[in-house]
Structure formats: structure tokens, C-alpha cells
Amino acid sequence: MVVVLGIESTAHTFGIAIVKDGRVLSNVRDMYTTEKGGIVPLDSAKHHREVAPRLLAQALEKACIRENEIEVIAFSQGPGIAPCLLFGLNFTKELSSRLGLPVVPVNHCVAHLEIGRLTGAKDPVLLYASGANTQIIAYAAGKYRVFGETLDLGVGNFIDTFARHAGIGFPGGPKIAALAEQASEEVKKNLIELPYSIKGMDVAFSGAQTKLKQLLDSGKYKIEDLSYSMQETIFPMLIEASERALAHTGKTELLIGGGVGCNKRLQEMARIMCEERGCVFFVPENQFLVDNAGMIAFLGEIMFKRRVYTKLEDVKNLDIKPRERTDDIEVSWK
Ligand code: ATP
Ligand code: FE2
Question: Is 334 contained in some domain?
């Protein structure tokens, strides 16, 4: 039996979770949001500092766990925004030193994938669609390999930038999804044309981004119709890349991860594609799709049980890894 406390702080979300024997007992988070404009790194880190003590208390209370029952701390080491990661690291070090606990440094992207185990997925292709990242990942020969990815910006950032340009605050994803549902019948039949850019399993969004800005600035189009056309153009790119990865790897499960994975239309497209291919589609609960500490603690427990962790006396030497890549990680716990 292992009780793990997980800490997430890579970007806009600060979260704390308690996991015991593969069960997420609590998973609390607080997100830095803005009415207008995107993430200001130092403001986001300040947000994390302000909410951290309260979230720690809440996570323990919800899980009915006392501090002295925690056996190990898992934290998001990277990739992410440096000031946010640094706060998470320092918070982890203080807690580790105060409670005398070892630490498991966790890769945030791999955690998005591993939390899929809760859904029953065994060996999936992951469509990882978040703010900063858009990758098609699958396990092969000891590592999580990136089969395809965005060549420019992450799909969430792309959507958020469009939303920001339209004067909608951060995060834009849920608001754009709601607007898309209000699109006019003409546009639903006949999309506003946007660049569809996919090469092999790689995708690119900057062409669509430029075009969307122009169309919005022209004042001729309703934001609802642009949102709809955007989703109906961009999401099929992600589905096409995922389908190629399924065909290429011969795997039969597709898992979705990342905040954009909450989008019901994207889920619907993925489900249809999987049905047509005879594959199974897995969707974690929303609380495990967006950035959250539950997935960090969950993977932390798996790694700790395989003895992949940093001993108490070495915790002081730990550092953040803002640019760590998914395929840098030796997956020694599988
Ligand atoms: P990562 O560090 O893994 O790249 P991230 O820090 O950007 O991720 P996530 O919480 O995984 O964070 O994803 C955030 C993105 O998800 C934002 O772009 C946001 O607009 C989008 N998003 C969140 N909820 C929804 C939703 N319900 N529908 C569509 N998009 C959503
Ligand atoms: Fe994330």
C-alpha cells in the first residue's frame, strides 16, 4: 500500500492529489484564468503560490489522509513554463524536507497517457491535444514515441489565440465549443474554408490561424460560424493523424488526453473513426483530461513501486525540465 501526494504546476493549473493503490482519493485544482489575454508566466506562478496551502489542506481533507500517512511525493518536473515549474519544485522540496519523504519526478505528458489506464486502455495510441502540446504518442520498444505532432503551435493554444483575438478570455476552448453549436445552418452545410494542413502524421495550424484572423477582422463572418468551421477543419486533421498512427502501429485502442480532449465534438469524431476501424476509443473523465495532479500522483505511484524515484537526501539536487520531451523518458516501469 502506497499513499502518494501529487503536485501539478506546469502552466496555468496548480493541483494537488492523493492516490492510494491506484485509486485517486482526491484531485483538487485551481486554474489561473484571465478575462482578456493569455498566460503571464510570473502571474501564473504567483497564482500557484497563493492557492497552494489551501489546496494542500483540501486534498488531504477530501482523501481523509493525514500528512504523516503520505509515503512519497510526485511532482510535474516538465515540460512547462519555467516560473510555474519552479514554484512546484520548491513546494515539493519544502514538503519533502518537512515530512522526510522521497520524491518521484514525473513527466507531465507521459502522465496524460498513463492516467488512461483508469479507463481500461492497455496499449493505446494517445491523441494528446492540450494547450501547449499536440502529439500522437504510442509505446514502442521501451519508450513512448511521438509518431506525429504539431509543426507549429499546440491545438489548444491555437484555439485560445483565436478566442483572444475575438476578445474572449482564457481558456477559450470551452467558449469556442459552445459558440460552434450556435452556427448557422448554411455554414453547417457549407463550411467557411480554412487551410487543412497535414503531412504524414504531423499537423500545422498557423495557416488556419492567419486565415481565421483575417476572416474575423473582415467583420463579414459571425464568430459562431468561424468557430464551427474551425472545429470541423482542425479536428479532422487530428483524427486523420491518429488513424494513421493506429494503422502504422497496428494498435487497436485510441485514448484521448489533454484539455482539448474535453471537446465533445472531437470525442465524437474520434469515436466514429474508431468504430469504422474496429478499434476501441477511451475517454478519461474531464478531471483527468485537463491539467491535474491526479495523473501525476497516479504515475508517481507506478514509478515508485518500480523504484524509479529520488531518495530524500538527493531531493535538494532536483531541478525542473521545462523542455523535456516525451521520447526522452526511459519507460523503465512498464
Ligand atoms: P500541456 O501542458 O499538457 O500542454 P496545458 O497546460 O495547455 O497542457 P490542458 O489543461 O491540458 O493544459 O489544456 C488546456 C487547453 O484545453 C486550453 O487550450 C483550453 O482552451 C482547452 N480546453 C479546456 N477545456 C475545454 C473544453 N471543455 N473544450 C475544449 N477545449 C477545452
Ligand atoms: Fe497538460
Answer: no
* Domain carrying residue 168: 118-288
Cβ 40 vs Cβ 170: under 8 Å: no
User: Which one of the ligands is nearest to 267 CA?
Assistant: 1
Mean pLDDT of the chain: 96
Tell me which H or E stretch contains 109. Answer: helix 108-114
- Ligand 1 atom 26: the closest Cα is on which residue? 174
Q: How far apart are CA 207 and CA 14, in angstroms?
A: 32
Residue 34 Cα to ligand 1 midpoint, Å, equals 14
The confidence score (pLDDT) of residue 37 equals 67
CA of 331 to the centre of ligand 1 (A): 25
Q: What is residue 171's predicted lDDT score, i.e. its pLDDT? A: 85
Helices 173-180 and 223-249 cross at an angle (nearest 10°) of 110
- By alpha-carbon position, which residue is closest to atom 13 of ligand 1? 259
pLDDT computed for residue 169 by the predictor: 78
| Ligand 1 within 6 A of CB of 137 | no
249 shares its domain with 218: yes
Q: Rounded to whole angstroms, how far apart are CA atoms 115 and 288? A: 7
Q: Which helix (H) or strand (E) holds 30?
A: strand 23-31
140 and 105 both lie in a single domain: no
